[in-house]
Each structure stands twice: as structure tokens, then as C-alpha cells.
Amino acid sequence: GPEIYSATGEHAEGVDPAVWAQTGGRLTTAQGLRLYDTDHSLKAGERGPVLLQDHHLREKITHFDHERIPERVVHARGAAAHGVFRGYGTASRICKAAFLGKDVETPVFVRFSTVLGSRGSADTVRDTRGFATKFYTPQGVFDLVGNNIPVFFIQDAIKFPDVIHAGKPHPDREIPQAQSAHDTFWDFVSLHTEAAHHTIWNMSDRAIPRSFRMMEGFGVHTFRLVDEQGETTLVKFHWKPKLGVHSMTWEEAQITNGVDPDFHRRDLADAIEAGAFPEWELGIQTFPDTPEQTFEGIDLLDPTKIVPEEWAPVQPIGLLTLTANPSNFFAETEQVAFHPGHLVPGIDITDDPLLAGRLFSYIDTQITRLGGPNFAQLPINRPHAPINDMTRDGMHQTAVHSGVAAYRPNSLDGGCPFLAGAGEGAYVETPVTVPQASKVRAAPASFSDHTSHPRRFYLSLSPVEREHVIAAYTFELSKCYEQAIKERQLRVLADIDPELCAGVAAGLGLPAPEPSGPLPDVTPSPALSQLGRTWPTD
Ligand code: HEM
């Protein structure tokens, strides 16, 4: 960029406040006062007491004392990169979002993460991976906050504290750091069978990716796309890695954890630095927006269910290429704030009860994590669109607002800011009919099928992938101290598949229980096996 400070520390006119930090040629205090020494505290004589009046000492140490901010309550460990998204134009038929238009290029920032470990935990643990993408479109920021597993543990966000408390390290010994091998996790998922589908993905090779560059990503929830005429289509978002989907074996992952706990973040940064830019195609499965919001009997509002790709093929709509590493981990990877409610015209939500809770949770936690309500002003979070939101003040306010009328309507600032209409790109919520109903704390009957989807997943795997699943359940459950938890989880597995249950039971040295009833009749979905998984355009 333009040189704003000379080598001698003189600075030019018109310094950009966004880039002023650490650019002077002379060491100063935070107030710009030049210093002649930063190695000695001010003392009353060489062997005398340190003086409280030493502002440089106090400023240097207090700043250091406050360098750490809280890590994310989940997905604390992550690695990120900048890139570009190019629309193919193929979605424009059903979606008016400008960034999906043909050859429209949009800057993006993508953060990959593990879910359960702390910021300093190892990379190649068995866990779900986050795959969060921020699109800086001229219509505002769109965030696609997904995972590398297409389903979630719970069907209703009210249970998120429960599943995370069960999955995080034990409150007494803070063990384990980033793996699911413990009593609280298995206690919860064995008592709470809607978690069975996510759990079996976690016990598969998908939970130990070879590289972030070789993972699929999923929006999980069903979203609603809207075209220029207001017609709607339900969709599920998929990221397909150009390098294919690849995993480590458990043994490779264990060794890598010890030899290089930063393996995944190093791999991502090295590949980008070497010019081997990772690529993913964004695709959508599309479903008619019917009042039932089901497809072939599958409830599209249930985030523990997927629609097999053989039934609804993934149609490519754009290409993501990661082209640059962050230059500062804290400013970018740590301070980025994603939110599933950051939407642009053409993309709307559905009534998935898990999504509804997420829409509240992210902004709430970010107010704590990023120290107040002004985190959208941080460089990594700034929209690439003009802002005039009439918010004022608050912790860490860095904007100097002009004008007096931070309210509407007003006559003092000429009525500005003006409201836009739909034709000018305003976000207008889709007028979906909300059924007349009494208040209930209840889920629809379709949400109570917890076995057919994990069963399809297991039956779709190749023999070696099934062996890995059996070995993973066996290893993880063998770490539980409570015999009753192992036995209860075996009963869950018996209702998914007898071969799976028998294999795990044998490994644990326990009897294999009988299924509680007839097993659901499901057809396998070969697309779920990651062997030979390629993307149609390759
Ligand atoms: C963070 C995905 C469900 C609360 C994240 C991140 C991802 C993610 C990728 C990391 C974002 C980053 O890189 O900064 C998902 C997916 C879900 C899901 C795919 C289900 C489909 C939930 C639910 C809640 C929740 C149900 C709460 C009710 C959070 C919170 C954070 C987070 C509080 C930390 C955000 C921050 O500190 O910036 N999630 N999540 N998530 N998620 Fe979720």
C-alpha cells in the first residue's frame, strides 16, 4: 500500500486510521510519544524502588495483561483464509442474490474449525469440523455457517447447552481436551437418540479429515431461495472439494496429533503459500416449497435428516478458491464473527427450530467474545457495502458519526438515511404463511424417527469404512467408566444395525442386545461412501 510513514518515523498527511498501528519508524507510547528506552523501569536510583509515575511501564504491562480475549465457546480452534467466490449463474433461475450471478466475483473469508477443543488443542482429533464462509457482497454480508457433517446432534436449539456441556471436557478433571471418548458425551447421546445420526458420522472417517482442503461442507438446515418474481425453492447447501474427500486412518491421526498438532492449519497455509489454491464447488439440492416442507417423506425442517444425493442431485452454482493466508491471526481468524442470520436478498431461512436458536446465539456470544456490540466495525467483519445503521456509541466504538439525527423519521438531517424498496435491493422477508396454532413445547411426529438415517449411512459405507466405524465406537466407548452407558449405547446401535452392534459389543467384551423392533427398510445411498467420491464436473 502507499507509504504513510517515512523510514525516520515522520508521517505523511492523510494517515488512514485503519492502518496506522505499528507503522512508525520510532518506538513510541500508544499516545505517540517517542521513547528512548523500553528495557528499564523508571526507578529512584539504580537499586531503588520502581516509580508509579512510569507511564510507559504501566501502559506496556496493562496492555499485555489484557491481550487475551475469551475463546469461542465452541469452535475455538480454527484456521482461515481469504479467497474469492465466482458464481456460475446457474442459481439465478431460482435465486435473485446478485453474488450468484454468472461470473460475479465476491471476496470471501473462510474459517475452518474443530468444535470441542480449546484454542490450543490438536488438529487431527475425532470431531466435527466447522466450515464457515463470509461473502462480502455489495448487497451486504452473507454468511454460510456450516459444518463438514450434514446433520446435527439435536433438532431444537434449546438443547445446544446440553449437547455442548456433554461434549466438552469433564468439569472435574478437564479431560479429554478434544475427543468424544468420555462418559458425559456417551451418556447424553445414548439417552438422546436423535443424536445417533450425527454420532455415527463422528465415528466414521469423516470426523478425521486428511486436510481442510479435502472436506465437504454443508449448510445443514434447509434454506429458502427466492427469485425476482418472489417464487421460492427450498435448498440444502453443499461444498464439494475439488481435491475429493479424504480422511486419515485413526492411527495416522493419533501419530499426527503428537508429531504435529498444527497439521491442518499448517497444511492449509502451506498449500496457499505454495500457490496450490484449494477449491470447492458450491452446490444446492433443490426441493419444491410445499406447505408440508418434506421431500420424498423426509422432513426438511429436521436437521438430523438428509436427502440422499441420488434422489436430489447436488447442482453446482459457483466456485470458491482460497488464495491468501491471513496476515494476522488475531485480527482476522480470531476476530471474525459469523452469523447464520447474515443474509442477502434471495436467501431466506426456514422454520427449522435449530436454526431459529442459532439466529439468536451467535450475536449474543459475540457481544461477550468481542467486547461489546461494535464488532461489525472490526476490519475483518466490515461489509463491503455502504453502512448507515443509526446505531451509536457502545464499547469499542471506532466510528465518528456525523449528523445529529440517529433516528427516523427526522427532518434535521434531511430525513436521511432513506429506506430502500425491494427494487433497490432491500431485504424483504418472504411472506410465508404461519399456521394458526396454539403454543406448544413439542416436535412433529416425523422428528421421532432416529434410526432410519443412521442406518442408511451405515449401509452405504464400503466394508473398510464400516470396519473403521466399528473400531471407532469400540475405542471411544471403551474409555467410558460406566458400564451402564456402554450397554445403553449398544442398545442404540442394535436399532441401527445388528452387524454394527455385534462388532462393537465383541470389541467391548459385552453381549450384543437385540433390536427393540423391526429395523427400518432403507435403500443405501452410494454417495455417502467417501471411497471414489468425485464431484460430477471433475
Ligand atoms: C460457532 C456451525 C449449531 C452456537 C460455530 C462455528 C460454526 C458453527 C462453523 C464457527 C464459526 C467460526 O469459525 O467462527 C454450526 C452448525 C450448527 C450449529 C453447522 C448446526 C447445524 C449451533 C447451535 C447453537 C450454536 C444450535 C446455539 C444455539 C454457536 C456459538 C458459536 C458457534 C455460540 C461461537 C460463535 C462465536 O464465538 O463467534 N457454529 N453450529 N451453534 N456456534 Fe454453531
TrEMBL record:
Residues of the Catalase core domain: 28-416
Region forming the signal peptide: none
Catalysed transformations (reactions): 2 H2O2 = O2 + 2 H2O
Keywords: Heme, Hydrogen peroxide, Iron, Metal-binding, Oxidoreductase, Peroxidase
Cofactor(s) named in the record: heme
EC number: 1.11.1.6
Gene Ontology molecular-function annotations: catalase activity
Taxonomic superkingdom: Bacteria
Recorded family membership: Belongs to the catalase family. HPII subfamily.
Function: Decomposes hydrogen peroxide into water and oxygen; serves to protect cells from the toxic effects of hydrogen peroxide.
Name the UniProt record assigns to this protein: Catalase
Organism of this sequence: Streptomyces spirodelae
Whole-protein coverage range: 45 to 582 of 749
